[in-house]
User: Fold these one by one.
Assistant:
Number 1:
Amino acid sequence: MSDQHHLELKHVVFVGRSWEDYCQMFNLNEADLQGRNVLDCPGGAASFARTAASKGVEVTATDIAYYFSPDELLAKGLEDLQTVQHITSQREDCIEMRETNPRFASFLEEMTATLHETVADIREQGYGTRYVPGRLPNLPFADGQFDIALSGNLLFIYSQQLGRDFHVEAVRELMRVTREEIRLYPLVSTDGQESPFLQDVLQLAAQEGWAAEKLPATYELMPGYELLRLIRN
Ligand SMILES: C[S@@+](CC[C@H](N)C(=O)[O-])C[C@H]1O[C@@H](n2cnc3c(N)ncnc32)[C@H](O)[C@@H]1O
């Protein structure tokens, strides 16, 4: 794989969440997704696409990490989870969260299990259908290929690593490949403050004729956060 992909991947952790977590992050339920062609970008190590398939919901997961082999993904994911474990064991707010939020106490075990599950599914499926290598802001999909796109834990949260241009071009690209709506979560960067690029994305939405609304998310691990729903007019 190219050095560029290695460099880009270095700054972002390869972890993933479950179907239930996605429903909470994006304020969705199964009925909202049935019969729709869904894009998960970035899919990361999330088991959302696999669980969706078992429910008859068609999800395509794309991620820059899928340019790597399953062995490389597992190694990167396990290393990233160790880093997360180290950081969260030092930070006072995380120590407090672990004591008060039962979900926080178990999230590393849950994410480790999800990583193993997803890498096993990638091995079984191969790349090309459910898991498609792709790099924002240039995705390998046709205009309007998806009814709805979900983008969790990449935009806004990495505002210190990914700049304004990346945010605007990434959302413009999601608009290109999506016919109906896009949901982005969360709207804050890692310091818990609203991302400085949210206003740029809202401006883009207005320019491109997409309605925007903030909705509450109910993801137990990050209580009180919101998502942005963009709807093509
Ligand atoms: C924290 S994970 C989020 C995964 C999943 N959406 C979730 O919420 O659990 C972030 C993912 O973004 C991917 N990523 C980083 N830069 C990317 C880019 N330019 N295009 C596509 N994916 C990217 C990383 O490989 C990583 O898997």
Note: The chain has a mean pLDDT of 93.
Number 2:
Amino acid sequence: MVTVIGNSAALRKRKTLKKSLHFTVMVAGESGSGRSTFINSLCDQLIVEPSSTINLYSPEELSNPERDLQLRKSTVELEDGEGVRISLNLIDTPGFGTSLDNSMSFEVIQDYVKHQFDEILIEESKLRRNPRFKDGRVHVCLYFITPTGHGLKEQDVEFIRNLGELVNVIPLIAKSDSLTVSELKLNKKLIMEDIERFKLPIFNFNEDFFNNDEGADEETIELNRYLSKTVPFAVMGSNTTHKDPATGETRRVRVYPWGTIDVFDNETSDFVSLKNTLLITHLSDFKDYTHEVLYENYRMKTLGEEADTSEISSAREPSITTGVTSVANGSTVSQHGAAVNGLDKEEQIRQEEQRLRAFEERVQRDLIAKREEIEARERELAEIERRLAAERLHD
Ligand SMILES: Nc1nc2c(ncn2[C@@H]2O[C@H](COP(=O)(O)OP(=O)(O)OP(=O)(O)O)[C@@H](O)[C@H]2O)c(=O)[nH]1
Ligand SMILES: [Mg+2]
């Protein structure tokens, strides 16, 4: 099903868009923070069952403090008023923040994000590219913060610190309807103070990358300034829609004993600003920044590390190091080291190939390990399903 997301001609001007855009958004945050409801509100349709309507976990799983993190993917086709289609990949992370030790959760998410980068690295190094290759890089991670009135929790700090260098992290205040106007203001302030104090790498709308290029006019800079002041975006979501009998208009609302709140109402939440930012005004920026900055940094770091490892292993190889040192003016000079400064093209290519080979071998090893892990999980899952079926038979 294709959902129309509104007319965006004015907002999207200057952005060159292809006919169909692939965009990947991850939602993370502690269990029950409203991730599923947010996804449904963003897409204006039921994509993920919220935990209020289904039992995602068996009673045993719920009582297990070490419940595992899962990554759940869904894709939805959206279309704006100009016929531009967005193929939106959503990655939900149920189970995050439910363990006593959350380092495993960070690792699973981090590994996933890095793996998508690795796939690109390998594809780029191929002589013949795979025409069906799918870029699975995560362009934005929306991180749901539960408002406590005390700024960030340790888990929030660790998450952003671990992921912020790899993906555009946008912090959100979840369930903003539970806060008064002044509480919301205070929570935003405390969260931003923590982000600055711990120097957390969140997505920065004021970055030169977006405001100093040729396409950035005063309007863009102004919008970025406004968005940067809005962070963390205060959002609420709902799985309920309500048709206004007077206007015939369908609204997504939260229903309370005293009345209803429209989740898209600009007075009570930043939902619409965030939705426009994600799907219209900054979609290309998120993708460009992912490719040109985040991926590029990762590429340099990874290949640099591979180079270091291959240099270390080369240093251990007698054929390269033996017999190439000579003594001049009483000091030892490595001819291998001197050659590095004056590398000819062929030697550079050879080294680059060596690095990529080492890198590919490492990725292959990682893949095998991950596959074994998945197989073990599948066996566990089959066992749980078998047990549940047996219990159902008993009942
Ligand atoms: N007050 C309020 N409640 C919300 C909001 N969004 C979701 N909820 C409620 O919070 C509960 C959890 O919502 P979900 O969307 O299932 O949260 P989740 O983060 O996906 O939860 P898990 O998948 O179990 O980790 C449900 O009862 C929702 O109705 C919101 O914006 N405000
Ligand atoms: Mg959920």
Note: The CA atoms of residues 138 and 386 lie 34 Å apart.
